[in-house]
Amino acid sequence: MPRIVRSTVIDAPVAEVWRILRDFNSHRDWHPAIADSVIEDGQAPDSVGAVRRFRLTGGVVLREQLLSLSDRDFALSYCILDAPLPLFGYVAHIRLRPVTDGNRTFWSWMSDFDCPPEREADMVRLVAEGVYEAGFGGLRRTLYPLGRGQGEGATRVGMFGKSATLSPQPSPQRGEGANAIVARAYGPPDVLQWTRVLVPPPGFGEVTVRHTAIGVNFIDVYCRTGYFRLLQPPGVLGMEGVGVVEDVGPGVTGLSPGDRVGYACAPVGAYAERRTMPAALLVSLPDDIDDETAAATLLKGMTAEFLLHRVHPLTASETAVVHAAAGGVGVLLCQWASALGALVIGVVGSEAKARVARAQGCAHVVLASDDVAGRVLELTGGRGADVVYDAVGRDSLARDLAMLALCGHIVSYGQAGGHLEPLDAAALAERSARLSRPNFGHYAGTPAQVRLSSQRLFDALRRGLVRPLVGARFPLREAAQAHRRLEDRASVGATILVP
Known about the structure:
- This protein has helices at residues 14-21, 27-30, 120-143, 218-225, 291-311, 328-339, 351-359, 372-379, 396-402, 440-443, 447-462, 479-487; strands at 2-10, 34-39, 51-56, 61-70, 75-82, 88-99, 104-114, 155-159, 162-166, 176-183, 192-199, 206-216, 235-236, 240-248, 260-264, 274-278, 283-284, 319-323, 343-348, 364-367, 385-390, 404-412, 434-436, 470-475, 494-498.
- By secondary structure, the protein is of the alpha+beta class.
- The chain has three domains: 2-166, START domain (Alpha-D-Glucose-1,6-Bisphosphate, Chain A, domain 4, 2-Layer Sandwich), CATH 3.30.530; 176-296 and 470-498, Quinone Oxidoreductase, Chain A, domain 1; 316-437, NAD(P)-binding Rossmann-like Domain (Rossmann fold, 3-Layer(aba) Sandwich), CATH 3.40.50.
- The strands form four sheets. The protein has a nine-stranded antiparallel beta sheet with strand order 2-3-4-5-6-7-1-8-9. Strands 12, 14, 15, 16, 17, 24 and 25 form a seven-stranded mixed beta sheet that branches.
- Strand 6 and strand 7 (104-114) form a beta hairpin.
- Helix 5 (291-311) packs across helix 6 and helix 5 packs across helix 11.
- The longest helix is centred in the N-terminal third of the chain and has 24 residues, at 120-143.
- It is elongated.
- It starts with a strand and ends with a strand.
């Protein structure tokens, strides 16, 4: 049974340190591995028996219970109740003592647990470094954000019955450099600069990924212009990437260096040769899905998946209108909707794009410059469309309503043409219409949702229901040109960047 012991000295009075630690829920404020935490059933956070349920930055959820607390001894104990990690019978003890030669605090953190022998080294590293050492540093930064009081002290790491004393731990690596596209401010494509950035080593629940292909999406344009505040300049754009795991931090399971992975989610940062990010956001890529296919389809394909299967579950008896039918998401929507048996009417901006849309499954194609609503009503014998998938925005919602069948559904999932004009909700009553405004993050915002959506996408790729259409490839350093092409509506299908 492993026993982990870590200790340090905090340059603060024992009463000040204890005031923080005795709050069983305070770790959400000072521990860098904690994303959020709550005390269950409304109990006081210093009440013996209280249970805290918390989520790590990598997405893992745990539950721990406070077993004892002594204000006299500056000590507490707790145990793990539930965790998706092999830490069986985990019980931890925290003890503070005043240092006699100064107004400082000696902090000891110890735990005993059991685990499978083959996982022992990983679990010891996770607890010793990812929990205890990271916690020491986190509390110091909370007490002294400007760097005062780095503390000192020997560290002990040992197995039950054979503890060993080690020298103080070296400072963590500062990370390595990588080339990236940085938006130095909100604005036009010219704000994008080829810049050398620091890639930190992976922390708890994180991995470092070396990109092999990067997807370009209209949401990147929204981030660059400041329409979506997912990026605070200066910062690295991008929400879709594919690559190879280079390094793995403590607490990561199921991923190893050399594994092929992809992702399609916030936080931004994909426009880089390498990046460090939460492991829970990554999807392991099957051998039969190559890197470019994944980069061209992950975000767009997962968008098509939830639009067709969850926002409006499309059936073979329905008629669907797809705006921007030759675009990145539009192509996959047309392919997949057609494979589901629906009658697909595509709306495009040119004859050249009309030829693309027909090849991707559209039974009919209408030019955006025509009377789109009139043509859709004509093609459906006056009935209208059961669902309209609209990524254009601006004044298109009123036009969508005019082409809708009774009890039809407008799914507005983008605004490539500009900010949406207001729509009087009372107007929906004319056709008993529904209007949805889905957010990608709400349908692919958790590891479980990402797994569901990506696996459905991979299955559709294998069955040939969807096929990637890569319309353009740019070197990563030419990302600004890719954005210009996207905004000029000159792009067809997916655009990818190659580091």
